[in-house]
Amino acid sequence: MTRLKLMREEEVPEGGFVGVKAGGKQYLVTKVDGAISVLDGKCTHWGGPLRMGKVVEGSVRCPVHGARYDLRTGELTKQVGIPLIGKADDLRRYEASMEDGDIYIEV
Predict the structure, then answer these.
(1) How far apart, in whole angstroms, are the C-alpha atoms of residue 72 and residue 82?
(2) Rounded to the nearest 5°, which phi and psi values hold at 11?
(3) 3-106 CATH choice from 3.30.70.260, 1.20.1050.40, 2.102.10.10, 1.10.8.420
(4) pLDDT tens across 70-92, in order?
(5) Which of 56, 53, 58 is nearest to 72 (CA)?
(6) Could you read off the pLDDT of 32-68 as tens digits, one per residue?
(7) CA 92 from centre of chain
(8) 72 CB contacts (<8 Å, ≥6 apart)?
(9) What's the pTM?
(10) Rounded-to-integer distance, Cα 82 and Cα 38, Å
(11) In what order do the strands lie in the sheet with 25-32?
């Protein structure tokens, strides 16, 4: 496994997220009630860049087709509303650790 440093904890807004690229992959770093979560940064439906999404009721909304994912868990909270083009699934969630204010994940 590889330990990746993503960013400083103070750079993540409370109740929001920041998109970050590390190790050649996009991640979404979120903060809800002071707790940091790290999720895959691309929508599971068509790979939309979640860093371009909006926060809606504790979820990030994909800018492409509108799937929503819980900011804490990556769980799909609203399915894509377009028939015949496939469905979204939950986002992968990574265990985050903190060291001296830096956020790390193991991949």
Answers:
(1) 25
(2) -80, -10
(3) 2.102.10.10
(4) 999 999 999 987 766 778 999 99
(5) 58
(6) 999 999 999 999 998 999 999 999 999 999 999 899 9
(7) 8
(8) 30, 32, 35, 37, 58
(9) 0.92
(10) 27
(11) 16-22, 25-32, 35-40, 93-94
